[in-house]
């Protein structure tokens, strides 16, 4: 097995490729986080109740699971780079239409289109990076994707905060006669345009090129990445991992016994439990959550920014250790830490009181405990399940099934995400925050034992060594 080591690789070229590919992660984060401060604007503009707001917010995720599934399959047909270009166009168009929409129906359609871009970027950026990076540093480079996701989320929180502060409130009229909440979506158009242009300057994945029989082009890309000496041997190794009688297809997910391969189930497990621990309740409903806990709108938006910065710092810890201690230990540490912090938040919410309107009120002491526990939870997630799930989905599948397996795992991840986002407003109202967070905490406990049993380490292995 030929190792494409960093010492022999063109790290400047690889770094530039990673920088471009992870703009998709930035947009993934920004699009997911932009809605956080716009909910009052959506309620007012479209006359929405709790269920209507939940659907409007969650409609992004309908697009996400469609986009993740479609992108995984299209990547085997059109190529990784071409599908990322398509997602960049959807990011751009979706942002503009969301900002200008005058009806809920138009807004939801645009949000679904933007969600399709998010879903595509979420599965293809880490997979693409995995397919061009040396094995020994692949985890670190793929983790950059998570940093960019959180950076995008934090950028959305910062933009939302300053727009709301400048306008006075999110529903107030601001530039060009548009309300501040509309500008929270329109601001995404600039990075989307940059992403689209930048994609023209990076190469197609060499493993996709081999799957299409374009060996000369694949050899050229591999030579640019790792040098001609490594490229000759690596090209043959990649060839050997593809079926000689057919191109990659969805039916490859079944083994010789006719059942879905265990490695596919392992990917689905990772994808689903990353959402069941409740992380996106904080990302999508952070402002609403902290107002339920007794903080003002302004304080809630500031807390979101702090959570985003904490998340970015946590990802740098992952970069430092993921290729040293491995993926599985980080997942176990994260599951244990999230369980403890989530149960701490359950305790806080269970000991709060209700005002005459039925809203949760916390004492100053309990509020501080909730804030500390929430940020520790975010740290544990972003040291572990946040980046590591995407790293593993991008690298754990054999070449022959990578696109199809990503389609299925990506669909599972975003469908779970949708269910969590859709259910939280109703759960919080009908069951209370304590019961809602108990579900997420129990899921974290279960995830610990599932990882112990079903997840195998991929640290340091070449993609051509992946079995399943």
From TrEMBL:
NCBIfam families linked to this entry: SP (TIGR00879)
Coarse class of the protein's main subcellular location: membrane
Keywords per UniProt: Cell membrane, Membrane, Sugar transport, Transmembrane, Transmembrane helix, Transport
SUPFAM superfamilies, per database record: MFS general substrate transporter
GO cellular component assignments: plasma membrane
PROSITE patterns given in the database record: MFS (PS50850), SUGAR_TRANSPORT_1 (PS00216)
Family listed: Belongs to the major facilitator superfamily. Sugar transporter (TC 2.A.1.1) family.
Protein name: D-xylose proton-symporter XylE
Residue intervals passing through the bilayer: 12-32, 52-71, 83-101, 107-129, 141-163, 183-202, 263-285, 305-322, 329-350, 362-383, 404-421, 433-451
Membrane topology: Multi-pass membrane protein
Localization per record: Cell membrane
Gene Ontology MF: a single term: transmembrane transporter activity
Superkingdom as given in the UniProt entry: Bacteria
Domain Major facilitator superfamily (MFS) profile positions: 17-459
């Amino acid at each position: 097995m030929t190792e494409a080591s960093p010492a022999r690789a063109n790290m400047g070229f690889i770094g530039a490729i990673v920088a471009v590919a992870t703009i998709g992660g930035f947009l993934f984060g920004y699009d997911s986080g932009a809605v956080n401060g716009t909910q009052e604007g959506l309620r007012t503009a479209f006359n929405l109740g709790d269920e209507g707001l939940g659907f409007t917010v969650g409609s992004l995720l309908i697009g996400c699971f469609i986009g993740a599934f479609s992108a995984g399959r299209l990547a085997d047909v059109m190529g990784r780079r071409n599908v990322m270009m398509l997602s960049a166009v959807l990011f751009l168009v979706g942002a503009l239409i969301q900002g200008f929409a005058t009806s809920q129906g138009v807004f939801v359609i645009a949000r679904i289109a933007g969600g399709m871009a998010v879903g595509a970027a979420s599965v293809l950026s880490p997979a693409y990076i995995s397919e061009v990076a040396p094995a020994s540093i692949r985890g670190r480079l793929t983790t950059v994707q998570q940093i960019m996701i959180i950076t995008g989320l934090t950028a959305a929180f910062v933009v939302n905060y300053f727009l709301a502060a400048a306008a006075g409130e999110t529903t107030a009229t601001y530039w060009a006669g548009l309300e501040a909440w509309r500008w929270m979506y329109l601001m995404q158009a600039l990075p989307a345009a940059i992403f689209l242009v930048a994609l023209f300057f990076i190469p197609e994945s060499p493993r996709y090129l081999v799957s299409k029989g374009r060996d000369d082009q694949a050899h050229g890309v591999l030579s640019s990445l790792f040098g001609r000496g490594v490229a000759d041997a690596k090209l043959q190794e990649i060839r050997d991992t593809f079926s000689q009688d057919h191109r990659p297809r969805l039916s490859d997910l079944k083994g010789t016994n006719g059942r879905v391969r265990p490695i596919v189930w392992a990917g689905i497990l990772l994808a689903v439990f990353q959402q069941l621990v409740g992380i996106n309740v904080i990302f999508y409903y952070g402002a609403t959550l902290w107002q339920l806990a007794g903080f003002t709108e302004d304080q809630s938006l500031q807390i979101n920014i702090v959570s985003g910065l904490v998340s970015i710092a946590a990802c740098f810890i992952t970069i430092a250790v993921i290729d040293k201690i491995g993926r599985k230990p980080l997942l176990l540490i994260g599951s244990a830490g999230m369980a403890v912090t989530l149960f701490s938040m359950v305790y806080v919410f269970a000991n709060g009181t209700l005002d005459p309107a039925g809203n949760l009120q916390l004492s100053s002491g309990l509020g501080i405990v909730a804030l500390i526990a929430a940020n520790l939870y975010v740290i544990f997630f972003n040291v572990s399940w946040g980046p590591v799930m995407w790293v593993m989905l991008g690298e754990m599948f054999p070449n022959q099934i990578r696109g199809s397996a990503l389609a299925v795992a990506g669909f599972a991840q975003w469908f779970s995400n949708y269910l969590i986002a859709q259910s939280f407003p109703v759960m919080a109202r009908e069951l209370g925050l304590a019961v809602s967070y108990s579900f997420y905490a129990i899921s974290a406990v279960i995830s610990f034992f599932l990882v112990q049993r079903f997840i195998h380490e991929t640290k340091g292995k070449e993609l051509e060594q992946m079995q399943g």
